[in-house]
Specification:
CATH topology of one domain: Dimethylsulfoxide Reductase, domain 2
CATH class of one domain: Alpha Beta
Strand order of the largest sheet: 17-19-18-21-16-20
Helix content: 25-40%
Radius of gyration: 24 Å
CATH architecture of one domain: 3-Layer(aba) Sandwich
Low-confidence stretches: 539-555
């Protein structure tokens, strides 16, 4: 929407801004490095507003917790926008100079009165008003979000609704302001930067752009199709139709990380040829026809990573890989050779220099400068460019330079699958501090930090069901069933239960989740599906869950 696929602000700015809207993110546990910077900001006077269905450990640091209904994010954003407009707090000069589509947007949010917004979100009208005024009146303010916004059937609309708020108030393109998707792993941003997207070349250059494509065709000596590829959801659908019969998986575990795991395993088994390049024998690797043992461990390879603030940093090889493992660049080069393209024996620096030559926003980031300066933030276009703390200052030039930032008309749409008489609870999923994704890297060893999986339930629902802390429950959706011990969590609202994806060998939460996906992004709705809870049909705790009993009251 703004011209670059990355956070518009730096970590430093979180320490010096006036207001932060942390939306759909338990950053204290899922993004602790960034949250450390935010804590410095809180000590410096930053006001924190946390929007989340759960009163998370992040919300405990907030000035105000806005505990909304799951899936009501657009409704809340539109209600805040209407209040900002009617209170005369919209940044009219910025809107006139730098944006387009405001009239249609204003008409869209008009029905979202404070009273109507309170009904849709479950947040008291006066709390919505306070958050709207605090954000709009602040000199510097930023919005930060994560998977609580993007893992919905209307994920893109959720993001657009937040960008609308920033445009409405002029909180973008200035120091201390911005819209910031916090990345869930240390090189998610780098993956996107390198073109690991179905519609982009490295440097976020559109694959349909003739000029950009011509550069790569000349450098690579091949013709690039000017058409968008499939995202993962579309690939799984194509496998199910048997239109896609071969797949190479590199450092990913879709058999356990994707929604409706039974269906994912079914379509992976349909493939004629599944190759998995990995450092562990994951569930996906166990389904493969060929496994290529790689050296993806963080300390076994050379290269770069790019973090959530667009900072490119060097990675240096510290130890030799185990016997039999192969460098990932060597594996890819050998695959290319067997497919008729001899790349020679490129080093990680050779690859990076090719990226710099073809992607203007990265050109100024030589290995020498990355070593000397400890990292640089893109865009960094020349060898004397210091990099960019924040993006889109062009919007404040008069007239604004480049493409105007468009407002988007987005409407509230709740979860696809809502609770009913048969499945009366809404399951939402997320992460915990002590574990990591599907547990491949953080499971498999004993640690007092590993409390194991649980189904977190509100005290009200526990009392209604006669459930005690630690009781083993059976959780059932329309797609599957798992068993997990109850963990009574005072931060949950009645009717909502919470689980993670960290322990799929013991509690395969993704057997429950729904594979309905956002048609614009392909992201599945991990954050909402209907379930029922019953006393477990088996006795005894699942492996790794003993420590649950010792954590009562510590959340």
């Amino acid at each position: 929407m703004l011209g670059a696929g990355g956070s518009t602000s730096s970590y430093q700015e979180a320490e010096e801004t006036d207001v932060v809207l942390l939306w759909g993110s338990n950053a204290r546990e899922a993004h602790p490095i960034w949250f450390h910077h935010l804590l410095k900001g809180i000590r410096n006077g930053t006001r924190l507003y946390v929007v989340d269905p759960r009163r998370t450990s992040s919300a405990q640091w907030a000035d105000v917790w806005l505990g909304l209904h799951v899936g009501a994010d657009v409704a809340l954003a539109n209600t805040m926008a209407r209040e900002i407009i009617h209170a005369g707090l919209a940044h009219e000069s910025f809107i006139a100079n730098a944006t387009s589509g405001f009239d249609a947007y204003r008409a869209c949010v008009e029905p979202y009165t404070l009273e109507h917004g309170a009904q849709l979100t479950g947040i008291p009208a006066e709390v919505i008003r306070e958050a709207a005024h605090a954000y709009a009146k602040a000199d510097k303010a930023m919005i930060c979000w994560t998977l609580g916004i993007t893992e919905h059937h209307n994920a893109v609309d959720n993001v657009l609704a937040l960008i609308n708020l920033a445009l409405l108030t002029g909180h973008v393109g200035r120091y201390g302001c911005g819209v910031n998707p916090l990345r869930g792993q240390n090189n998610v941003q780098g993956g996107g930067d390198m073109g690991a997207l179905p519609n982009r070349l490295p440097g976020f250059q559109d694959i349909r752009d003739d000029e950009a494509r011509a550069k790569y065709e000349a450098r690579w000596g091949v013709r690039i199709q000017p058409t968008y590829g499939w995202n993962l959801t579309e690939m799984l659908m194509a496998m199910d139709r048997e239109e896609m019969t071969s797949l190479l998986v590199v450092g990913e575990n879709p058999a356990q990380s994707d929604a409706d795991a039974h269906h994912v395993e079914k379509v992976l088994r349909k493939l004629d040829h599944l190759v998995v390049q990995e450092i562990f024998l994951t569930k996906t690797a166990q389904l493969a026809h060929v496994v290529l043992p790689a050296t993806a461990s963080w300390c076994e390879a050379e290269g770069t990573v790019t973090n959530s603030e667009r900072r490119v940093q060097r990675v240096r090889k510290a130890v030799e890989p185990p016997e039999g493992a192969r460098d990932e660049l060597w594996i890819l080069s050998e695959l290319a050779k067997r497919l008729g393209h001899d790349w020679g024996k490129p080093s990680a620096e050779d690859v990076w220099n090719e990226v710099r030559e073809l992607s203007p926003k990265l050109f100024g980031m030589s290995y020498e400068r990355l070593e000397k300066l400890g990292g640089l933030q893109w865009p960094c276009r020349t060898l004397d460019d210091p990099g960019s703390l924040f993006l889109h200052a062009r919007l404040w030039e008069v007239p604004a330079q480049g493409r105007l930032a468009p407002f988007s008309v987005v409407e509230h749409a709740g979860p696809v699958e809502m609770p009913d008489a048969d499945y009366p609870f809404l399951l939402t999923t997320g992460r915990r501090l002590e574990s990591y994704n599907t547990g491949v890297q953080s499971g498999g060893y004993d640690s007092p930090l590993h409390r194991g999986e649980s189904v977190d339930i509100s005290p009200e629902d526990a009392a209604m069901l006669g459930v005690q802390h630690g009781d083993l429950l059976t959780i059932t959706s329309r797609r599957g069933t798992v068993d997990a011990p109850a963990h009574i969590d005072r931060g949950l609202r009645a009717g909502v239960v919470f689980m993670t994806l960290h322990f799929p060998d013991d509690v395969a939460t993704n057997l429950l989740t729904i594979d309905i996906a956002d048609p614009k992004s392909g992201t599945a709705e991990f954050k909402a599906c209907a379930v029922k809870l019953e006393p477990a049909r088996v006795r005894g705790l699942a492996r790794g869950t003993t420590n649950v009993l010792a954590t009562a009251g510590t959340d």
